[in-house]
């Protein structure tokens, strides 16, 4: 019998998966383009200043406490099976609550904590549970584009509020108020900031909380870079203001412990008045996670040991390295006329620098700049358009100091070769 084609196929691809233009996937696409632009005949090492993963550099290797915790969990043979719940095993949830309680004026319980496969899944869960029909969310520009990608997939409307570079990338609260309406569910802040390297003061976070309360919206606080600070402004958890406004806190061990490949994060209801629970958010989160994948069981089993036993010296060493690298990066940028940086980073591992295209010959925009830089100097930096800032670039300074210095020297050489003649 011959195969006959149906008159009409009854399936089609979900187009929402390709909607977001400035998304996590376009970052990967651009980084792939940069790698493809590299000159194979250039015998110099490639300088990777385009992504936030310092784990492969010896100065940023994780602590032996974390490695031993993984080994102990595996050798115990307690964590080779399935987890019985998607929200996380009780010891891991308790350990995260105790870890976060160090920064809060009230106590979280294990029931407030939900474990996730890194902070990306925490983003996906938090947006999914607010994504009712017609809802919108307020996102920072610039920010981490995985939010836009997820919102596009679930048809959650995105509205962008500005960050103010001249004020340390603080939130423009007037624009937040202007954007919000009766369908606004939440605003997102990223503190310490990716991609801007900002750290918000206690006073600014309090103003954010008061603004959100006035508007009747919750705050989703992305603190994946929590405590990676090295400037004059200390890290303050947004959950400190949970008594003013409900806060969903997102975090992970990826950045502070330098293990982004381990894929362990959390979503926490930092909401002492239990407003989110009253509206059913805890139940919705449980339902979502019980239908999805969970972090590897042995990773969950290692979390109490990692969070409780890591020495302060490890964190101090990492922050000292980041401070030195940020200083070097900011200082060297001052000697490159085609890029300017509004302020030295205070946290995370990134710096945003604005391109002065008038100072360059034959460079159209930030993508063109980055592609030609990769080809001519074997240096990879991220075009700002991928994080919502056209004609800016994001430079990662969490690499070995010698590599960073070499990369910045090559960027200066690139400028000198393309400088506009006066």
Ends apart, CA distance between termini: 77 Å
Count of strand segments: 13
Strand order, largest beta sheet:
2-9-8-7-6-3-4-5
* Arithmetic mean pLDDT: 94
The number of helices is 13
User: Helicity level, as a percent range?
Assistant: 25-40%
Oligomer class: single chain
Helix and strand pattern: HEHHEHEHEEHEHEEEHHHHEEHEEH
- Structural class by sheet pairing and helices: alpha/beta
Largest sheet: 8 strands, mixed
Overall shape: it is: globular
| Rg of Cα set | 22 Å
Q: Flag low-confidence runs.
A: none
- How much of the sequence lies in strands comes to 15-25%
Provide a concise account of the structure shown.
The chain is α/β, with parallel strands linked by helices and 422 residues long. It has helices at residues 24-37, 64-75, 90-101, 118-130, 146-153, 173-179, 202-215, 275-278, 281-290, 297-309, 312-333, 366-377, 401-418, and strands spanning 47-49, 113-116, 136-141, 157-164, 170-171, 184-190, 218-222, 247-252, 265-270, 339-340, 350-355, 379-383, 392-396. A hairpin with an 8-residue loop joins strand 12 (379-383) and strand 13.
């Amino acid at each position: 019998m011959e195969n006959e084609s149906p008159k009409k196929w009854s399936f089609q691809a979900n187009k929402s998966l390709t909607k977001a233009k400035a998304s996590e996937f376009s970052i990967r696409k651009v980084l792939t383009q940069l790698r493809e632009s590299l000159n194979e005949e250039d015998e110099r090492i490639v300088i990777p200043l385009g992504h936030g993963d310092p784990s492969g550099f010896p100065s940023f290797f994780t602590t032996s406490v974390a490695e031993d915790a993984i080994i102990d969990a595996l050798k115990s043979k307690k964590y080779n099976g399935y987890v019985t719940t998607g929200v996380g095993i009780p010891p891991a949830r308790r350990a995260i609550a105790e870890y976060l309680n160090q920064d809060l004026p009230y106590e979280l319980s294990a029931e407030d904590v939900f474990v996730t496969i890194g902070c990306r899944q925490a983003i996906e869960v938090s947006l999914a549970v607010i994504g009712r029909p017609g809802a919108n969310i307020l996102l920072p520009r610039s920010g981490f584009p995985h939010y836009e990608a997820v919102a596009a997939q679930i048809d959650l409307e995105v509205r962008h509020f500005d960050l103010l570079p001249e004020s340390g990338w603080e939130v423009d609260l007037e624009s937040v108020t202007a954007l919000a309406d009766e369908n606004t569910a939440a605003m997102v802040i990223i503190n310490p900031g990716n991609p801007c390297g900002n750290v918000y003061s206690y006073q600014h976070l309090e103003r954010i909380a008061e603004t959100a309360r006035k508007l009747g919206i919750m705050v989703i606080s992305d603190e994946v870079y929590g405590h990676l600070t090295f400037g004059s402004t200390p890290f303050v958890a947004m959950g400190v203001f949970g008594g003013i406004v409900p806060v969903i806190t997102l975090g992970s061990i990826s950045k502070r412990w330098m293990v982004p490949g381990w894929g362990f994060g959390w979503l926490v209801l930092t909401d002492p008045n239990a407003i989110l629970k009253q509206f059913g958010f805890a139940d919705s989160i449980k339902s979502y996670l019980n239908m999805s994948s969970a972090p590897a069981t042995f990773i969950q089993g290692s979390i109490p040991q990692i969070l409780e036993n890591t020495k302060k010296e490890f964190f101090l060493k990492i922050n000292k390295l980041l401070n030195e690298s940020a200083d070097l990066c900011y200082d060297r940028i001052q000697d490159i006329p085609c890029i300017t940086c509004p302020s030295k980073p205070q946290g995370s591992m990134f710096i945003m620098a604005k391109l002065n295209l008038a100072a360059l010959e034959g460079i159209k925009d930030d993508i063109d700049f980055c592609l030609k830089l990769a080809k001519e100097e074997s240096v990879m930096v991220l075009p700002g358009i991928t994080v919502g800032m056209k004609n800016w670039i994001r430079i990662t300074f969490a690499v070995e100091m010698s590599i960073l210095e070499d990369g910045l020297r090559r960027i200066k050489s690139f400028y000198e070769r393309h400088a506009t003649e006066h």
